[in-house]
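Consider the following input, taken from an annotated entry for Holliday junction branch migration complex subunit RuvA (Arenivirga flava).
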Amino acid sequence: MISSLRGTVLSSSGSTVVLEVGGIGYSVAVTPQHALLLAPGHEASLRTKLIVREDDLALFGFEDEEGLQVFELLIGVTGVGPKSALGVLGHLTPGQIAQAIADEDDAAFRKVSGIGPKTAKLITVSLAGKLRVAPPPPRVRPCRPPRSATACATP
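Applying the prediction step yields:
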């Protein structure tokens, strides 16, 4: 398996990046937003998932472990292939995906090309309880001197 790549970005267009590692150019599918961040000539590091099909070897790249883990959960859902899973990650952050699943909001997934009502519902049902929703950031109220900063945090 190819679990990560680090090298120089040769090209970036649409949702594909070519990353040169050790003289070999690897074509990696990424979200369009991620492709925009990967400028040719610059170093990049990607977490990757290699998908092996009868007639194809495809690499899918992610900027962090969380994106990779959510991708792997999504492709485990019946009817969700790697391209659809990458499409979901192109529309929603891992945190938004976790929140949509926790809220049973299948409409969030129907916005993605290739995800219909049945598949969207199946995603929310199949992944229920498998993704943690990040807690909201702590509330902080403004301080007025001479109070200390620690006295301003609201539990």
